[in-house]
Amino acid sequence: MLLLWLCTTLAVGVYCDHHDRTNMLPDRTTIVHLFEWKWRDIADECERFLAPKGYGGVQISPPSENLIIHKDGGRPWYERYQVMSYKLKTRSGDEEDFLNMTKRCNQVGVRVYADVVVNHMTGDHPTNVGTGGSTADFKNYDYPAVPYSREHFHNPACQINDYNNAAEVRSCNLVGLKDLDHSKSYVRMKIVEFFNKLISLGVAGFRVDAAKHMWPNDLGEIYKKLNDLNTNFGFAPNTRPYIYQEVIYYGFEAITPSDYTSLGDVTEFKVGSELKSVFRGRNALKWLVSWGEQWALSPSDKALAFIDNHDTQRDHDVLTYKESRPYKAAIAFMLAHPYGVTRVMSSFFFDNKEQGPPMDSNENIVSPSINEDDTCGNGWACEHRWRQIYQMAAFRNAVRGTDVDQWWDNGHNQIAFSRGDKGFIVFNVEGQDLEQKLQTGLPAGDYCDVISGKVNGDKCTGLKVTVDDKGFANIHLPGHVEDMHLAIHVGKESSLQTSHNE
Any idea where the Glycosyl hydrolase family 13 catalytic domain is (predicted)? Predict the structure, then answer.
């Protein structure tokens, strides 16, 4: 299908209408990654929180049957990425639970994107039983539940050692995981069957794990055979699945994201690595005036932007929930800026990098509990429920269709900009108070800062910002408060005028 989108490049920003390819509703813009959540819990969350707060989609953990791994008395998170078969049976639920989730999420306008693992099967382990009861003979590359046998894999002796060798990266085993040979028509057929099964069950698209480890031509052959989305779930006829591909790239490797952008979007890892340095105070905020492709990022209309994910939280130096002040600010900047399609992480608390999700004595995943202040319990971090994050998702929805305007900086670590005449945001990483009369671009009136509080009737629970009839406002943002940013916009979550008119 020919993907149509409007993309306009301006002096300091790029606005792109992503909805033609993401399949989100026109007034939704952000995906939440509910990592390791159970399907029925995701359905509940779509109805009670994601839809009401304006989130557009949810990325789920891999739905395919995985190997059961016991390590140090627990179940490591990475077992979900060791595939035993394409049966829809995991600790998150079975096919009935999956269908319940997609029906309920789509009914409230939240799209479901499945994390699909098709580059490889498992590594070698002492046990050989999967979450759906399947078994495998690892030594002989025999996975009867698919079925795959030795002829369907690349050379077992070949391991990836040199990331500057593209053929090795794409045709050898990744950390011992048995690498499928996607040049085989049979392998492509089994993967297409798996994808199309998920499409029939109501998904809106796929996050393709380890895409850089597969040849682009082989992926192209797979994508071409995918069905249109299922109209029984509210999708228009002839709607193609949204595809975003994991292509890890920080520079200086043989394989680049541009190798895959003709096939779909790519995950832009440099968003998190660059904004980490900025909001830790190691790179001046003023340079963000050129944020986007000028920072050697992928084109905005091909990028999935994020600060952290389930991998980088554990193995890379990125901002996470454990460093909440700069983390919230980095996410706020990502959501305030028009670059890319945005995804926010929702984690569980962990003490070591292999730790899996909270579980009970029978190794069942424990559901998040919901506290009165909207936060989670039972070991779940639930960053998507932090006020400073879900309010910025609403900000992004309110400013859609606008560009970066009214840029201001103090020459160092205080910046501000508007999104046309719909939103305005300020950041202060200076360590000193910001006191400035700034052009907001917004209509005159009173606005509640959505970072420090909310609209409560005709009052603000946090800071109030008054915009005069010329668009100016006196901004006061201390240097050492809980959050290093404030934001206002014309939507009901911020504008007292909008709240009164509804």
Answer: 29-396
